[in-house]
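Researcher: Let's try something more involved. This one mixes different molecule types, so please make sure each is placed in the same coordinate frame as the others.
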Amino acid sequence: MPDTGLAAHLLAAVLGIVAVGTGIAVFRVDSMARATFSLLASFLAVAAMLGLLGLTYLAVVTALMMTIEMAIMAVFMIMFMMNPAGLMPMTMTHNQRGSFVAGTTTFVVLTAGVWLVDWPARGGSLPADATRQLGEAIMGSHMLVMLVIGIGLFATILAGTVLATARGRYDRFGAELDRREPSDPLPGGLPR
Amino acid sequence: MTAVVAVLAGAVLLGAAAAIADRAVTARGGPRGATTEVLRSGVRLLVKGRRTTVAGDRLLWRTGVAAVPVLAIAAAAVVPVAGRSLLSTSADLVWFNAMEALMWAAVWLVGWGPNSIHPLVGGYRFLAQGLAYELPLMFSLITAGLAAGSLRATDVVAAQQGLWFVVTMPVAFVVFVASAAAFAFWGPFASPASSDIAGGVLAELSGPDRLLVQVGRYTLLGVSAAMAAALFLGGGHGPWLPDVVWTAVKSLAVLGALVWLGRRLPVVRPDRFVDVAWMVLVPLTLVQALVVALLVLAGAY
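Model: All components are placed in one shared frame. Result:
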């Protein structure tokens, strides 16, 4: 149930400032670890705002997904980007003019849209459990679409991994693919 | 306000029980000696000075250290006792999962912050371990929610009026309890803080910082045992005794069994555990979820 009191409005404003502030900090700090985790702070502020809107499931799942994503991203950012430890000056910005134009345009369009669009009044009453309603909306009549998207995403992940890995099955099982046990740099935990 | 205090006290007591049990099964002196030892080392850490390192990232380090106990208590907010919990939302199970996922960030920060090699290795070990247990853990949580038809923890307990969920979902129960040890990086999953890397993420922690992280770990372990009792062992359901007593008895039983067994197993290397988790546990938990889904369709719950 969305809270419409003054305290909720104030909290939403504070969270908005935190989200934007930590979002800006991503590009101002000089360490990959700090950039990654200020981005996470920004996402968590957005998740808290979703919670204020009464969208509990979306709020919690945003926090969950973004945390795992940022934790894994920290690994890759620090592995591949320059200056991981922030010991040398670096810049997080590229194509400043283009991104300035794109960012400003998006912000203006969205903000104008919020105030200018004639939003329809609510039809029907508030559902008791918005999570269930969301699940039915996504999984009910749109199941086919969701399945296609899901399989498409999964295929993309597999294809990306296959393209990125330097070792294929011939490296693991030999030119004739007849090696009983694969030769892997890390043996893994299962007997095979 | 009283509810907040009650949850806080409950969480810390569970954490203390976990720490004392851990001490009691590993050292001589029995439960009383273990209690004295836990209190003594806690007080000693309180008065000890803070260790500093060269060019550490103090902000991130302190954030990570503070986050560990805060997340453990936030996870306790959705544990149902006597038909209610401090924070009853329509997505309690996801909340619990999110707090545990934030532990990834917190522990990694504790490892990254001091700019020291052993904590850093420990932090990365925790991420690798997280990749291993996260999916099986998610599937086991979802399985409990699926049978109850709700992600609200109190609904899950209410759905076990007749039959405890552990009967139809033993795999999910075992995976959940094992994951509890894994996200508290304790026992067989303690490699992020193990002695082969001089204490890993704990290596540069001293004084109150170390106390906070240790309290957070054990609290999370205790709270997760309580959550396991609520999700799979019927929570407060039981004859004669009141709800609260049953909840406490079951939580402590899960905790005791977890600590007793966990301390008898060797430490698992994360790189090996990933293989087992993805090749064995993910399919097993998926089959478990499928079986429960079919039971739901058959109207078994």
